[in-house]
Write a structure and sequence with these properties.
Length: 427
C-alpha cells in the first residue's frame, strides 16, 4: 500500500464512528438543551466545538479562548525559516461563530467540578453538562536550573506560537554570520516530538541562505527521537555539517542555563556558548487542567481511551497536548482526531445512544528543506480503557525515498495544513 493510500485508510478508520451517529435531540432532563463548554481554541478544542455543533445542532456549545487570533505551532518553524509569513499560520473564529458556536474571548481561571461551573478571568461563570479541556501546554519553569519565565525573554522557547516565536526570529536575523545557534531539547513527553528537529532544519535553511558560516548545536536529553534516522539523513544531505546533535550519551543533557550569558552547562560540566539560545524546557498540561483536578503527578491528564474523559473527574474530557494518551503523540493531527472522537462520544452519551467504538489516527509531517519532507503515521485503539498501537499500522517514510518522493511528502504536509486549518477555523 502506498504511503498516501495508507494515510487515507487511517483517517477513514478514525472517522467511521462519527459517520454512524444519528443527529440526536440532546435534552437535559426538564431543563432544555444540554450545554458543553470547551476551553481552548486550538486543534483539539476548536475541532470538538465544531463537530459537536455539526453532530447535534440542538446542543449549546461555548468555546472559551483568550486569543482573538490563534497562531499554530505546526508550521511556525517554517516562519522561522522565512518560508511562511506570520499571518499564514494565524486563524480567527468567525466561521465557528457562523456554525453556531458561542465564542467567548476570556481566560478560564477555575473549575468547580461538583457544581459544574467554570469561572473566567472577567468574573463570568459558565455552567456545563460536559466540559472539554484542550489548554495545550505550560512550561515547567525552573525544572531546568536557571530557566524561568524571565529567562525566556532572553533565551526564548518559542514552543507556544506567538511573541516567543517572533522574538526567536528577530534573534536569528540579528545573529552574526559564523555564530552558533544552540537548542536545548527536553526528555519525553513534550509537545510535538519531531518539532525540535524540524526546527533545526528550518534554522539551517535560513542560515544557508543568509549566514552560511553559522553552526547549530542540539543538546538533547534523549538518545532517540521521532524519525531520527530520516532527520540525520536529511540534515546531512541539505546542510552538510552545519547541524551537530549531541544525545545524552554524548553529554547532551543540559542541567543549567544562564540566559543572560547565553550559556548552557551539561551533566558532565561542559559549557556551551551560544549567540542565539533556544531553550525548550520540560512541559506539563495547561494550568486550567491542574485547577480542574484532572492532572496527576506527571503533570499531564490521564484519560479513558474510549472518549478522552478524565480518569479522575467524571464529566470532563481532556484533549490534545494536555492529555496523557499512551502511545499517541502530542501533535496537531492527534488533537484534531481526538476532538472528533470526543464530540461523537459526548453527543451519543448526552442523548442516551450507544457510543461508537473509537479509532484514533496520527500523521506527522516534517519539513527538512523546500521540497524535502518526511512523515510518520500510526493508528490506535482503546483496549480496557487505555490506548494502544494497532499492530502493523505504523508507517514511516522510507530511507531510500528519492527526490520525487521527498517532494511529494513536502506537498502532502502543506496540503494537510491547509486542509486541517480550513476544516477547523475556516478560510
Amino acid at each position: 500500500m502506498s504511503m498516501n493510500r495508507y494515510r487515507r485508510a487511517l483517517l477513514g478508520s478514525a472517522l467511521s464512528g462519527a459517520a454512524g451517529l444519528s443527529m440526536p435531540a440532546l435534552v437535559r432532563a426538564g431543563n432544555g438543551a444540554a450545554r458543553v463548554v470547551v476551553v481552548g481554541g486550538g486543534f483539539g478544542g476548536a475541532t470538538a466545538a465544531r463537530y459537536l455543533r455539526r453532530l447535534a445542532p440542538q446542543l449549546q456549545v461555548t468555546l472559551v479562548e483568550p486569543a482573538q487570533r490563534f497562531y499554530t505551532c505546526p508550521f511556525s518553524n517554517l516562519y522561522l525559516a522565512g518560508l511562511r509569513s506570520w499571518e499564514s499560520i494565524g486563524h480567527g473564529y468567525d466561521e465557528l461563530r457562523a456554525a453556531g458556536v458561542e465564542v467567548v474571548h476570556a481566560r478560564a481561571e477555575d473549575v468547580d467540578a461538583g457544581a459544574r461551573r467554570l469561572r473566567l478571568d472577567g468574573g463570568q461563570t459558565l455552567t456545563w453538562d460536559r466540559l472539554v479541556l484542550s489548554p495545550g501546554v505550560d512550561m515547567r519553569w525552573n525544572a531546568l536550573e536557571g530557566y524561568d519565565q524571565a529567562a525566556a525573554e532572553l533565551a526564548p522557547h518559542a514552543w507556544k506560537a506567538g511573541a516567543q516565536t517572533l522574538l526567536l526570529r528577530r534573534q536569528m536575523q540579528a545573529m552574526k554570520d559564523g555564530g552558533t545557534f544552540v537548542m536545548v531539547i527536553p526528555d519525553n513527553p513534550f509537545r510535538c516530538p519531531p518539532g525540535p528537529y524540524e526546527r533545526a532544519a528550518m534554522v539551517a535553511h535560513y542560515f544557508k541562505q543568509h549566514k552560511p558560516r553559522s553552526k547549530i548545536l542540539l543538546l538533547d536529553a534523549k538518545e532517540n527521537f521521532s524519525k531520527k534516522a530520516l532527520f540525520l539523513q536529511g540534515w546531512k544531505a541539505l546542510y552538510g555539517d552545519m547541524i551537530e546533535w549531541l544525545g545524552v550519551s554524548r553529554d547532551g543533557q543540559a542541567v543549567r542555563v544562564d540566559a543572560r550569558r547565553r550559556e548552557v552547562e551539561t551533566v558532565f560540566g561542559a559549557l556551551h556558548q551560544a549567540d542565539v539560545l533556544n531553550v525548550i524546557p520540560p512541559q506539563k498540561a495547561g494550568l486550567i487542567a491542574e485547577r480542574a483536578g484532572v492532572t496527576d503527578a506527571s503533570g499531564w491528564a490521564p484519560v479513558k481511551g474510549e472518549n478522552f474523559e478524565s480518569t479522575q473527574v467524571p464529566g470532563i474530557h481532556v484533549l490534545g497536548d494536555a492529555s496523557f494518551a499512551g502511545p499517541m503523540p502530542k501533535s496537531g493531527f492527534a488533537a484534531n482526531n481526538q476532538g472528533k472522537m470526543a464530540a461523537v462520544a459526548i453527543a451519543a452519551e448526552l442523548s442516551g445512544q450507544t457510543v461508537p467504538a473509537a479509532s484514533y489516527a496520527n500523521t506527522c509531517y516534517s519539513l527538512i528543506g523546500p521540497g524535502y519532507g518526511i512523515s510518520v503515521a500510526g493508528i490506535y485503539k482503546a483496549e480496557q480503557g487505555r490506548l494502544i498501537d494497532v499492530p502493523g499500522t505504523v508507517g514511516i517514510s522510507p530511507m531510500e525515498g528519492d527526490a520525487a518522493f521527498r517532494a511529494a511528502e513536502a506537498r502532502y504536509g502543506a496540503a494537510w495544513y491547509a486542509a486541517i486549518s480550513e476544516e477547523i477555523w475556516g478560510r
